[in-house]
């Protein structure tokens, strides 16, 4: 899983040059390391959501499209879709923030969003859920789903 962390204040990423951990506000667009001033790369991998507070802050404050993978470690189809979700995160770094919500650990979010089956993917834009689909699918189909959900298709 990703070395990138998320909390209610932003994403916490390591500088690729000096290794310094930096908190990046959800709304930030041009980010630099606080220590060496190297430009920090866009988030290019799925980020595990630790709790409902971090999730709510991300959805509320991010200007980017948020793609959410609701999953659980015991779920076979969830494990199948994981590399596809990672491909989407990589291909759309800077455009999407892809997060994973383990419904066994962050039960509150699974209940709030009435997740009935996993994997379920949801898309948030401007603080609002704009699309949802269930089942494992390849990266190209996930990208099409996200574009349709955001009106970009």
**In this structure, how is the largest beta sheet organized?**
5 strands, mixed
Given the C-alpha coordinates, what overall shape results? globular
CATH topology-level name:
Glutaredoxin
Question: CATH H-level name... which superfamily?
Answer: Glutaredoxin
End-to-end Cα distance, whole Å, is 30 Å
Q: Strand order, main sheet: write it out.
A: 4-6-5-7-8
Number of helices: 4
Total domain units = 1
**What is the CATH class name?**
Alpha Beta
Radius of gyration: 15 Å
What do you see in this structure?
The protein has a single domain, classed as 3-Layer(aba) Sandwich (Glutaredoxin), CATH 3.40.30.10. The chain is 29% helix and 27% strand. The protein has helices spanning 52-61, 76-91, 107-112, 139-150, and strands at residues 5-7, 10-14, 21-24, 47-48, 65-71, 96-102, 120-125, 128-134. It contains four helices and eight strands; from the N terminus they run ββββαβαβαββα. The N and C termini lie far apart (30 Å). The radius of gyration is 15 Å and the shape is globular. The strands form two sheets. It has a five-stranded mixed β-sheet with strand order 4-6-5-7-8, with helices on both faces. Strands 1-2-3 form a three-stranded antiparallel β-sheet, with helices on one face. Strand 7 and strand 8 form a beta hairpin. It has 153 residues and is of the alpha/beta class. Helix 2 packs across helix 4.
């Amino acid at each position: 899983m990703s070395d990138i962390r998320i909390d209610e204040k932003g994403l916490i990423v390591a500088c690729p040059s000096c290794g310094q951990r930096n908190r990046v506000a959800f709304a930030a667009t041009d980010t630099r390391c606080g220590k060496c001033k190297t430009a920090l790369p866009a988030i290019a991998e799925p980020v595990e959501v630790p709790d409902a507070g971090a999730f709510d802050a991300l959805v509320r404050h991010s200007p980017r499209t948020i793609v959410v993978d609701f999953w659980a470690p015991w779920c076979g189809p969830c494990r199948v879709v994981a590399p596809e979700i990672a491909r989407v995160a990589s291909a759309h770094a800077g455009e999407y923030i892809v997060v994973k919500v383990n419904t066994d650990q962050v039960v509150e979010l699974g209940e709030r969003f009435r997740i009935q089956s996993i994997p379920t993917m949801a898309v948030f834009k401007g603080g609002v859920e704009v699309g949802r689909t269930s089942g494992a699918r390849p990266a190209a189909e996930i990208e099409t789903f996200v574009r349709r959900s955001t009106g970009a298709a």
